[in-house]
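Hi Y.,

Following your request, here is the sequence exactly as I used it, all 406 residues.
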Amino acid sequence: MDPFINEVLNLILRFFHVITGIAWIGASFYFIWLDNSLETPPKWKADKGIRGDLWAIHGGGFYEVAKYRLAPPEMPKHLHWFKWEAYTTWITGFFLLALMYYVGAEAYLIDKRVADLTQGQAIGIGLGVIAGGWFFYDLLCKSPLAKNGTLLGIVLFAGGTGLAYFLTQVFSARGAYIHMGAVIGTIMAGNVFRVIMPGQRALVDAVKAGGAPDPSWAEKAKLRSTHNTYTTLPLIFIMISNHYPITYNHAYNWAVLMVIVVITAAIRRYFVLRHTNSETPWLLAGAGVAALALIVMIAPKSLSSLSVPAQAEAADVVAEVNINRVEVVLQSRCATCHSSAPTDDMFGTAPGGVMLDDIAQMKQWAPRIQARAIDSTDMPFMNKTEMTDEERVLVGKWIAAGAPES
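Below is the corresponding structure, written out as tokens. Let me know if you'd prefer a different format.
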């Protein structure tokens, strides 16, 4: 695909994906807060079947919200549904996944250093994992395990850990993370489409028919909605993880991902409990301690941690910082993409606006070079231009010396 067309499609899909995602997540957060903030209604409201109500002020006006135990005696003329936010987020996300990781499989999804896959094999594995993830989750939620939330959570986490490990053994690290996110996103959208919406339709149909709604549908919908709220923050992290190679490029990237899932879910748990006036500062503190421990664990190794032969050879080649040599390395290894006129067949413009056409620009972007080419070795992308350890040492020494221009 033409790089410009690819970039335009990527922009459009990503924009709509983010907008609809904000709407979906915002509605989800709001209703979880609302449900946990309801107060016991006065008797005259309770006699009408109202389970809880809430008063709020926003935008210069007062709002009164009431929730029925199951349903009102008769259906209102206008009933607002919340479904298209979830559906549109999933649809735009899937098309974005297909554009970047399936159409561009050889660039973003397949890493020959991990597994020598064809484009068809990689796409097949990706789609199989996404569909299989939903069926695995759905079967567990329909099993007797669903009656024990703790045990169900342990089994789901174990399954997620196994999936994360598998993905990192077949895909590029970045592709593995994004597919883990695709599985979680599909589960969340599947919960809306297959359980929450059918349950709400059953409630509406029962009221219209003048019958008593089946409370089991409401219970199922509430369970899946609760699951969705705890996977929201992990999903948000995964969606932006491609900007942070310090996580997905770690040797134990699958474990790093699962630790982040636990940390972000715990943070969400803290705020959910806070809505019910259950202060659990230990939960937030524990998440903070775990995050700090993770940061220490994934901190980049120093240049001195490179193999001894590589250090010795680099010392022989670079007795002192050779600026001309640095410029040659960055132009040959990085400027094929990061240039005002990229020569790489994937990019029509410099990714991230980073241009390394001359030593002045290289100095300007030295911190980014340090983070992406020295600390995480994420760049060059998939090491397409075959940057060596010796060259990374050379560039690292130049940056450590203050990135001099002459």
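The radius of gyration is 26 Å.

Thanks again,
Q.
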